[in-house]
């Protein structure tokens, strides 16, 4: 009985410690311990001071909202939305969301007005006043778009895979496909996409088809920051969080001037981000930390 009495406080302490959100560890350091919420002060406290003007750039799927089997099922939590709204309306923060979704789709998912939305990995930009900026796509390539989708649907859509039409780009999803068919269907999807003049690249359980123009999330972020936030934005405070390989272009673009977070539980993953955070919940705690500095 005495031994049980002595162990009870220790068990309670361990339980409470496990409830702390795992937040951050230095990028590319697989031996670094997972950090708890107060470590944001350690990593960002000297970078972002109370009252600083901030540019906050974010991905959506896998960053602001949990990944699901179908993009239509993805939902941003009310708490995450409230915190993002408070930051965007603070007067001290410029907020942009750069997503692989089409621009109207990502705006519909988030539903905030005082935010710049960029879709199709930066090919489309929608401003709060309703104006749009779209990167030009060669006419001969654009004319192949429907043909590409038609062939993908005929040849590789089976056993749970499907094609997402994002108007200027596509994503061939195989997250729910039977694993035995995935290597063959992914390889064939890549061949079809490239045969129509589009660039194919691997993403989360998918193959993306993008127009063959030199544009990516990093270039989109640079354009948005330079034209909308501040012409001297490299001397300002910039934070970015994303979970996918396509987000690495933003991380590289702000390297050395801004601060970036890669959302991943994989400590072995090599990234251009400054830090890793393990979950969407950790992103929420990051937003709350930012909110405490700008609101």
TrEMBL record:
Listed GO MF terms: trehalose-phosphatase activity
Required co-factors: a divalent metal cation
Catalytic activity as recorded in UniProt: alpha,alpha-trehalose 6-phosphate + H2O = alpha,alpha-trehalose + phosphate
Keywords (A to Z) from UniProt: Hydrolase, Signal
Annotated signal peptide: 1-24
One GO process term, biological-process aspect: trehalose biosynthetic process
EC number: 3.1.3.12
Matches recorded under SUPFAM superfamilies: HAD-like
Biological or metabolic pathway of the protein: Glycan biosynthesis; trehalose biosynthesis
Coiled coil: none
InterPro entries (UniProt xref): HAD-like_sf, HAD-SF_hydro_IIB, HAD_sf, OTSB-like, Trehalose_PPase
Family, similarity comment: Belongs to the trehalose phosphatase family.
Matching NCBIfam families: HAD-SF-IIB, T6PP
Classification via PANTHER family: TREHALOSE 6-PHOSPHATE PHOSPHATASE
Function, as annotated: Removes the phosphate from trehalose 6-phosphate to produce free trehalose.
Annotated protein name in UniProt: Trehalose 6-phosphate phosphatase
């Amino acid at each position: 009985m005495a031994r049980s009495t002595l162990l009870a406080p220790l068990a309670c302490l361990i339980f409470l410690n496990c409830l702390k959100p795992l937040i951050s560890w230095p990028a590319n350091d697989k031996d670094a311990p997972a950090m708890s919420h107060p470590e944001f002060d350690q990593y960002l406290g000297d970078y972002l001071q109370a009252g600083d003007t901030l540019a906050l750039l974010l991905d959506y799927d896998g960053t602001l909202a949990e990944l699901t089997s179908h993009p239509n099922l993805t939902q941003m939590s009310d708490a995450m939305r409230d915190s993002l709204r408070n930051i965007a309306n603070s007067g001290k923060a410029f907020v942009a969301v750069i997503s692989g979704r089409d621009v109207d789709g990502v705006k519909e998912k988030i539903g905030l007005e005082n935010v710049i939305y960029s879709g199709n990995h930066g090919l489309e930009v929608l401003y709060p006043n309703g104006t749009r900026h779209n990167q030009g796509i060669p006419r001969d390539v654009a004319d192949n778009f429907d043909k590409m989708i038609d062939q993908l649907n005929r040849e590789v859509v089976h056993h749970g895979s499907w094609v997402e039409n994002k108007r200027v780009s596509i994503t061939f999803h195989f997250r729910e496909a039977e694993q035995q068919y995935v290597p063959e269907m992914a390889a064939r999807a890549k061949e079809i996409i490239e045969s129509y003049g589009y660039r194919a690249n691997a993403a989360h359980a998918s193959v993306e088809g993008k127009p063959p123009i030199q544009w990516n999330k990093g270039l989109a972020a640079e354009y948005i920051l330079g034209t909308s936030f501040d012409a001297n934005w490299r001397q300002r405070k910039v934070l970015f969080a994303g979970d996918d390989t396509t987000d690495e272009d933003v991380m590289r673009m702000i390297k050395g001037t801004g601060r970036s977070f890669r959302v991943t539980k994989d400590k072995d993953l090599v990234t251009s981000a400054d830090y890793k955070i393990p979950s969407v919940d950790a992103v929420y705690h990051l937003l709350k930390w930012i909110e405490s500095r700008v609101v």
